[in-house]
Design goal:
mainly beta, Sortase, Chain: A, eight-stranded mixed barrel, 10 strands, globular, Sortase_dom-sf, Class F sortase
Length: 206
């Protein structure tokens, strides 16, 4: 597997994740996905659990977020020809992806997982991501048989023009995880106008 350094991920854009997704229409009874509240937007350093020791590199196979009923396989994602993060197939609503040229979840650095919020058939894997709360658990099954256990530090929403690349993708000295989906405003011509981003760090493993 080809991998790049931890700092190289700062060049990744998530524009492709949201540009083609259609907001679900009222006739099928689905409303806009939840967005994080201001109370969830910033980590509280005093209440943050200490990071667990980093794990050796190992590709991930599955992500679980019990509080929002996510239990999804992971597929590897690369970059498009324009430098955007590629996306999982939109037709498989319970599939997420991880940026396989970067950090694997659990090792030192910033690992990236992304998935759709919805598709034309209904809610997709990360529809409820904006409803997460600080302190929630995220579990990642790894190919070496271990499970990386992350604790959510913050959930934030950004308009595309204000997306903080360095904050989201920048290098970290401890094992961290970002989970990203579409969010913010919506335009029928261009799709969602921003992203929901979950910030988490490794707090245990088994």
């Amino acid at each position: 597997m080809s991998r790049v350094g931890n700092t190289a991920i700062a060049t990744v854009s998530v524009v492709a994740l949201c540009s083609g997704v259609l907001l679900l229409r009222d006739p099928i009874g689905i409303h806009a996905p939840p967005q994080p509240s201001a109370a969830q937007a910033h980590a509280d350093p005093g209440g943050e659990r200490a990071a667990a020791p980093a794990l050796p590199p190992s590709p991930p196979d599955r992500i679980r977020i019990p509080s929002i009923r996510v239990n999804a396989p992971l597929t590897g994602l690369g970059l498009t020809s324009t430098g955007s993060l590629d996306v999982p197939p939109a037709g498989n609503k319970n599939l997420a992806g991880w940026y396989e040229a970067g950090t694997t979840p659990g090792e030192t650095g910033t690992a990236i997982v992304a998935g759709h919020v919805d598709n034309t058939e209904g809610p997709a894997v990360f529809y409820d991501l904006g409803a997460l709360r600080k302190g929630s658990a995220i579990e990642v099954d790894r190919r070496d048989g271990s499970v990386a256990l992350f604790t959510v530090d913050a959930i934030e929403v950004y308009e595309a023009k204000d997306f903080p690349d360095e904050k989201v993708y920048g290098a970290s000295k401890r094992p961290e995880l970002r989970v990203i989906t579409c969010g913010g405003g919506y335009s029928r011509s261009t799709g969602y106008q921003g992203n929901v981003v979950v910030f988490a760090h490794l707090t245990d493993s088994r």
